[in-house]
Design the sequence.
């Protein structure tokens, strides 16, 4: 019953996010056609939309404005999608399959993949700048937070550390630092940007959201590593077993499989505990923590 | 005498821009070291800084705030530099030399070049979001304009059209449309963002700046094509004669060399005429139009 309500809520949000992305992305009939078609090919109709779900769940706690939430969701998803497009390119992970479809450089070509990523990043900032239902000062804060999370002190920085760590025996704390940037920064900012679509946050509420999002950000990566080691490509919608094949340090390679699963479970509990100040209202954020840890793909 | 004053003004601005970039870019001692080192390698110590010069010259007309102008200059330059880094990659123009130095993918590696570009783009938006001397509503407008100019309806879109036009016999109006996006969008927005660092613009002033920047935006590309056909690599600081070698449509290939030079000169006059509403005050913008058309590299 509760699980069904959660599934329906997720469906609603995913539809909303699809609509928001549709509205943010230029039509494929707008020049240049191929670029816009490729941007839509990779951004629409797929993905778990974890970052938008986090933004919506967090926004609901603070009475988030609907237009603003849609654009925040589109913005964080476009940053995520652009990073996947670039990450899949031959000079990075060289992956052919993403979300069950050929990657952009396979379906189109490498130069187009490069430009698709570049243009999606700009479009993400435009989505936030186009919000017209929030005070401009709030919007500037949100744009700053997104830039920090996406750039060299966030996602791009994490990817750079990841690149440099191939074949190295990382310590657990180094691996954790890498992931707090690579995937954690965008997951964390999704929670915060969602909240900023609503009423002002108290310091206690902000700290609670930060603790929650740090826990689920890390849990997400631990589970990713577990799935890469245990699931098959068809289930994942991307090539499984790549980390080991690429000699990349992972939680599974450092801690082992069972301790990695236990760590994910512990982080799930920490995420729940962090939400205590919000009581029953934080149901969706709790359910998302469960989803992140218990997902199969 | 006048020319000397202009040269000194340019030097001052270029020093200011270098300082602003220094301040915006994370230190090479900040993790991840290689990424930050590579960002600084490509962004600092080189380049004509045309876009920052335009922003400063236009900002001076409206009493532009110094902190804001520095960040605007850093932002437009970082977008420009990121586009060069990605454009030089093997899957795009495959160029080894830029501003007289090995390109980023040659000095480092392709994956680093990809991330350097991505991170510089985020850093550009952060630079604008970090301005704290302008009304937030003004800042949001500036962030929106930068996103539009950088994205698929601006620079990235122009690059996509450029890619698709290799080997095609473009008409002059198609070539013009491509360049109005590829280089024009960022040159135009540099003029407008500089102006927005100061007092409110009247509609007449805004139109005058738009006409000026459309003319110099196009002139810039016409002259680029002329130089690519006539100058040598050492003078240009990048590989000369590449357009013809790559079978790319250019003004020179469509109009011929002399008519291209005449077109540049005509655009220079149009730029001067557009500045009429500002009278003597627009001296630096006029001098920049001259520089853009009369440059040798």
Sequence:
């Amino acid at each position: 019953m509760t699980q069904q309500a959660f599934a329906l809520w997720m469906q609603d949000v995913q539809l909303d996010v699809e609509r928001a992305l549709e509205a943010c992305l230029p039509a494929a009939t707008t020049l240049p056609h191929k670029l816009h078609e490729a941007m839509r090919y990779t951004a629409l109709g797929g993905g778990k939309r974890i970052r938008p779900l986090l933004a919506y769940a967090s926004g609901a706690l603070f009475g988030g404005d609907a237009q603003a939430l849609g654009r925040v969701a589109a913005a964080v998803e476009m940053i995520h999608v652009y990073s996947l497009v670039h990450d899949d390119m031959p000079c990075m992970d060289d992956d052919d399959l993403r979300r069950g479809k050929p990657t952009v450089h396979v379906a189109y070509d490498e130069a187009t993949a490069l430009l698709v990523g570049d243009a999606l990043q700009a479009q993400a900032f435009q989505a936030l700048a186009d919000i017209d239902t929030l005070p401009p000062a709030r919007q500037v804060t949100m744009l700053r937070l997104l830039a920090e999370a996406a750039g060299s002190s966030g996602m791009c920085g994490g990817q750079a550390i990841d690149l440099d760590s191939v074949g190295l025996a990382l310590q657990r704390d180094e691996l954790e630092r890498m992931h707090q940037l690579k995937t954690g920064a965008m997951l964390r900012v999704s929670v915060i940007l969602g909240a900023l679509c609503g009423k002002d946050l108290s310091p206690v509420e902000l700290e609670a959201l930060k603790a929650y999002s740090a826990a689920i950000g890390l849990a997400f990566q631990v589970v990713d590593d577990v799935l890469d080691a245990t699931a098959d490509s068809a289930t994942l919608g991307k090539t499984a077993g790549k980390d080991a094949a690429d000699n990349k340090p992972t939680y599974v390679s450092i801690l082992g499989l069972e301790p990695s699963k236990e760590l994910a479970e512990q982080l799930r509990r920490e995420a729940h505990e962090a939400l205590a100040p919000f009581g029953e209202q934080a149901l969706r954020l709790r359910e998302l923590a469960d989803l992140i840890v218990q997902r199969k793909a």
In short: Chain A is about 70% helix and 0% strand.
